[in-house]
């Protein structure tokens, strides 16, 4: 397991930890249900905490990838068993309404590999060549979104960069 897992604590949850004299980095020593109990979390928040911990336990997959899986309705690796990385990635792009950075597809490939093999030695970049070979042979779906991810409002720096070089 990673040394530090981000569970996106709210201000109230941080205050609860302070009251109980528990440091944030100590939460890694607790099971997800124990963390939920410590934080007095709702059933939904308990699901989210468990998912954030489980998804980020995969080497090189971080908080952003974990929150995207949750946004798509996945709360455990068990829910993802038997799923195809390409289908998951294509569904992710449709969910977001934009085409995603290619490394995100590599992350989906790592995710499905990890679920099948429980191999801690692989990182997302180990799947880049596999993705490139697949896309060279099969391309992308005809209904793939046409807007790139970096044109979304949350990527202001990319927009500033594009304007500066134009």
Radius of gyration based on Cα positions: 18 Å
Structural class, from secondary structure content? mainly alpha
What is the average of the pLDDT values?
Answer: 92
Give the tally of β-strands.
Answer: 0
Quickly count the domains: 2
* Proportion in helices: 55-70%
Q: Helix and strand succession? A: HHHHHHHHH
The CA-CA distance between the termini, in Å, is: 44 Å
Low-confidence stretches: none
Tell me the fraction of residues in β-strands, as a range: under 5%
Count of helical regions: 9
Principal-axis shape: globular
Largest sheet: none
Structural commentary:
This protein has 9 helices and no strands. Helix 2 packs across helix 3 (43-56), helix 3 (43-56) crosses helix 4 and helix 6 crosses helix 7. The N and C termini lie far apart (44 Å). It is globular and about 55 Å long. It has helices at residues 11-19, 32-39, 43-56, 63-71, 77-80, 85-96, 102-117, 128-138, 156-165. It folds into 2 domains: 1-57, no CATH class; 74-166, no CATH class. The protein is an all-alpha fold.
């Amino acid at each position: 397991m990673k040394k530090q897992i981000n569970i996106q604590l709210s201000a109230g949850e941080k205050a609860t930890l302070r009251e109980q004299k528990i440091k944030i980095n100590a939460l890694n020593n607790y099971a997800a249900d124990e963390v939920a109990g410590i934080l007095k979390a709702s059933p939904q928040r308990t699901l989210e905490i468990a998912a954030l911990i489980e998804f980020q336990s995969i080497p090189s997959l971080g908080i952003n990838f974990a929150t995207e899986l949750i946004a798509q309705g996945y709360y455990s690796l068990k829910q993802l068993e038997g799923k195809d990385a390409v289908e998951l990635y294509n569904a992710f792009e449709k969910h977001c309404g934009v085409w995603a950075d290619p490394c995100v597809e590599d992350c989906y490939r790592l995710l499905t590999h990890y679920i099948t093999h429980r191999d801690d030695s692989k990182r997302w970049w180990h799947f880049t060549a596999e993705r490139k070979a697949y896309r060279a042979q099969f391309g992308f779906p005809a209904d793939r979104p046409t807007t790139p991810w970096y044109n979304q409002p949350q990527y202001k720096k990319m927009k500033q960069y594009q304007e500066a070089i134009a």
